[in-house]
Amino acid sequence: MDNTFQLDLLKAQNESLSRSEHIYRMVCESSDYGFIYQSLDSDDLLTFGSFENMFGMKLYRVKDLDVLLEKIHEEDRNTFLQNLYPEKNNEKYATCEFRSADEHTWYRIITRIETEGESSDKIVTFMNITKEKATSSDLLYMAYYDTMTGIYNRNYFVSLLTEFLTRADSEGCKVSIMMIDIDDFKKINDVQGIIIGDELLQQVGSYLKGTMVKDRIICCHINNDIFCVAIYDSTGTFTVDKYYRELKKRFADGFTMSTGLEIDLTASVGVAEFPDAGNSALDLINCADIVVYNCKKNGKNSLQYFEAPILDDFLKNVDIENKLKEAAFNNNFLMYFQPQYHAKTRKLRGVESLIRWKDDDGNMIPPSVFIPIAEKNGLIVSIGKFVVSESLRQYKKWCDYYDVHFKLSINISALQYKRDDFVDTIMDLIVEHNVQPSDVELEITESILIDDFDSVTAKLTTLRNHGVSISLDDFGTGYSSLSYLKKFPIDTLKVDKSFIDTILDDASTRIITESILNMSHAMGFETVAEGVENERQFNYLACAGCDVIQGFYLGKPLPAEKVDELLCHMKR
Ligand code: C2E
Ligand code: CA
Ligand code: CA
Q1: How many whole angstroms separate alpha carbon 303 and alpha carbon 180?
Q2: What pTM does this model have?
Q3: Residue 378 three-state SS
Q4: Are 389 and 355 in contact (CB under 8 A)?
């Protein structure tokens, strides 16, 4: 090899070496990581990459590490040092995470020892992992807490409650579950809007959070306006009654929204206790839930303890509900008709159609049991349509066959009235069955009018304009203000059976009934007394000026063929 060639080769090698060094340096300097390099046989250090950005300094000697140590959180310093010197334990690799002294930043280091022949080098890589940490702590937060209210979520509550139960089992203690359901929250949401609704839930959540006591009281947000509290009581210090008293007071004091609006609350609270009501967290929560439902039914703003009959009732209702769905699907109902007579002439004024349901096992289930269930789950809409259609079909047959006309009274539920298509549904069915609208009377209850006065009044007025008449059922059990009645588009008023029941024995009932009859006549309403069971009641009411009498005394609800006999008899 000649010299020139050797020189060229050396030059090319140098160039390639400095080029690859340049590339390495570029990569390191543009990296987000910081690096320390140390040859283990010297005290010199080299820092590069983002190290200076991270810690605001460079390191030149091993002793400079003391300054770095000051920038690390006190509690994490030992870990850091152990992982900085793996060689002390004859290790070649170590990694750990640590916080900055101000706790704002999280770092991870990876220390690596590379040995080649006699010499060893150490490279320590520093990474900023603050973001990664934040995401995982968010995830951790979401696994345990409810994001809306900041208290425990249901899943975590169940697991903490399960721990309570295990502990209570071995210590022979009681654990109480309180299901707290805010009364009329839907109204607040509807009237004030969901932003205020959410703010209110947050405030309730933070109040409940403040009531938590380590290992004794835990709270969670179940959903919507429902919260749950578990109280572990071994000493009688933390009792349901005490908790409820304080909660009730706090709710009554009211919560101040950011808009300045004050909202005071009441709640329905259902309590189930371990071990009496159940052994598992879910059983207890379910029991408390059933009790809350019962509380709501019985007028809200109260606390009720779980008792076995409540569960029996509930299960019976669930059973009925399931069967009812099937019956509604197959229209497995029939209509009975109870005659109504003019008090003066004892002539037939009309019939009230009353639904009957015989379930598959042949049991007759009374409407007072299944109608409220159907109203709650919405089935009443399809059942109600069947009622109207079937009553009209039957009535039309009588009209044609016996050449008669009388009133056909049909009971209508609130849910039916609230629908936009209510008027059309009724009128379409009347037209379809070719019945005179003036023969049809709809029985409604006061609650309908109070709930949504304007829109219901408009619908009733349209129906009356078509010739359909409106009867106010169960009068005397609801709001029952006669002056209020003036505004309602009604034709007939049915005095509730509870008045008729005591009319002969109770002077004040007589006074009220007579004044109802007088005033409703003055306002132009026809009056019907329902539930008249004997002659004395009949005579009394007839004398008092009641127009129409309905009740077992003159006739029980009858299947259609029995009404046929009645009409046949009338014709003769
Ligand atoms: P309601 O509308 O007040 O019906 C009168 C109830 O009193 C009927 O009970 C009837 O059988 C009963 N009754 C009539 N006269 C007497 C009497 O002299 N003594 C006694 N003890 N009871 C008498 P029923 O048929 O069990 O209906 C109960 C309730 O169920 C009804 O009360 C009504 O609110 C509802 N309902 C019945 N059928 C329907 C329907 O087709 N649709 C809707 N939405 N509700 C209905
Ligand atoms: Ca009725
Ligand atoms: Ca009634």
Answers
A1: 9
A2: 0.61
A3: coil
A4: no
Q: What is the pLDDT of residue 1?
A: 54
Q: Please state whether beta strands 262-263 and 119-128 pair in parallel, antiparallel, or not at all (unpaired).
A: unpaired
* DSSP labels, 518-533: HHHHHTT-EEEE----
Q: Are 160 and 276 in a shared domain?
A: yes
Residue pair 246/146 in contact (Cβ under 8 Å)? The answer is no
What CATH number is associated with residue 232? 3.30.70.270
Residue with tokens 């009581």: 233
Q: Which residue has the tokens 């008027």?
A: 423
Ligand 2 centroid, distance to 428 Cα (angstroms) = 22
Rounded to whole angstroms, the Cα distance separating 503 from 265 reads 40
CB 304 within 8 A of CB 221: no
Q: Of the candidates 500, 487, 481, 486, which has an alpha carbon nearest to the alpha carbon of residue 541?
A: 500
Q: How confident is the model at residue 309 (pLDDT cuts 50, 70, 90)?
A: confident
- Looking at residue 460, what is its pLDDT? 94
Nearest to 268 by CA among 189, 184, 202, 154: 184
In 3-state terms the chain splits into helix, strand, coil percentages (rounded to 5) of 50, 25, 25
| 285 and 427, same domain (yes or no) | no
Full domain range(s) for residue 276: 145-306
Q: 87, exposed or middle or buried, with CB in 10 Å at 0-12, 13-18, 19+?
A: middle
Nearest CA to ligand 1 atom 17: 531
- Using CA positions, which residue lies closest to atom 23 of ligand 1? 531
Residue 505 has pLDDT above 80, yes or no: yes
- Distance of CA 519 from the midpoint of ligand 1 (Å): 25
Residue matched to tokens 């009044």? 457
Are residue 421 and residue 532 in the same domain, yes or no? Answer: yes
Q: Which residues line ligand 1 (CB under 6 A)?
A: 338, 354-355, 366-368, 371, 384, 387, 411-413, 473-474, 530-533, 551-552, 557
